Amino acid sequence: MNAPLTAQANPRNVVASRSLLLPLVAAGLFLLLVVIGSLIYGAGPVTPREALAALAGTGSDEAWFVIRELRLPRTLIGLATGLALGIAGALLQAMTRNPLAEPGLLGVSAGAGFAVAIAILFGASTATLTTLIAQVGALAGCSLVIAATRVQGLGNDPVRLVLAGATLSGLLLALTSMLMLMDQRAADEIRFWITGSIAGKSLATFQATLPSLIIALTLVVVVARPLAAMALGERAAVGLGHHPGRIRFLITVTVALLVGAATALAGPLIFVGLVVPFIARAFSGPDIRKTLWLCLPIGPAVVLAADVASRLMAAPAEMPLGVVTALIGAPVLLAIVRAGRMPSL
Prior knowledge:
Blueprint: H1 2-40, H2 48-55, H3 61-96, H4 108-121, H5 127-149, H6 158-180, H7 184-194, H8 203-230, H9 234-239, H10 244-266, H11 272-284, H12 288-313, H13 321-338
Helix pairs in contact: 1-3, 1-12, 2-3, 3-8, 3-10, 3-11, 3-12, 4-5, 4-6, 4-7, 4-10, 5-6, 5-10, 8-10, 11-12, 11-13, 12-13
């Protein structure tokens, strides 16, 4: 009796794997294109043809210097930022069972940004210290999100939860503005950083966040399966041997590590954690494990594509990355809110 059942189950698994493979390959190819675009396009004097020649080893020293010292670190930081925010958004949405949950909308990024602003005010300058402070702030913001989802009626209403998160974000942004009035030097640095940008960052900044990203991705592997079980309900998850409270705690820590690292790298970018899981779920369905797999290439691709656009839209100047991500994400948010029904999670 078992053999026919097994034989019937295998084709379904093969079909499911193939259905995920095609969007994964497509997202990977798009990511490759935007990585190349990030290396060859810029607002500076080096043209795409000169950049391609430098990558081929036949270009000028000036072009190779621009790629090696400016565009390559920027590309790596864009990859890390998109990866962190995309996965953090998917985890938040699955944990709260809310398709509008996003680090930038719920105050997690604002908490990290406020903590970094305090650190800058007190003279923090090293990348490691900024990363640690951002993660502490993100942890506080994420904890408030978890508390909000436990409030009667709030966690089950996507719009009310986002309004609560927007209130928290507004409060933290107001406090950040107050900090900017205390020190002109810090104000200039905070003002540039808070708009969101990955320009002018060094490889040292990227390397300082790598330990946090590695730990966070390890935790993602740990929580993915229990989180998928929690989608069936907490009683079902407990019946399968999982502990929902422990899983929520691990997700909180994971999101704090991811958002803190991304905020230290690029500033408080909004809507990335909303757009990336939204695109991934369009191909993967509600299964969080498939969604997380697709977020791996889609998150970096979205951030790098937005960054390339920020270089070209206002050349020879550059538009802040945070402005471009807002231009991309705002229509997606409106589309979700105006939909006849929320996507099931």
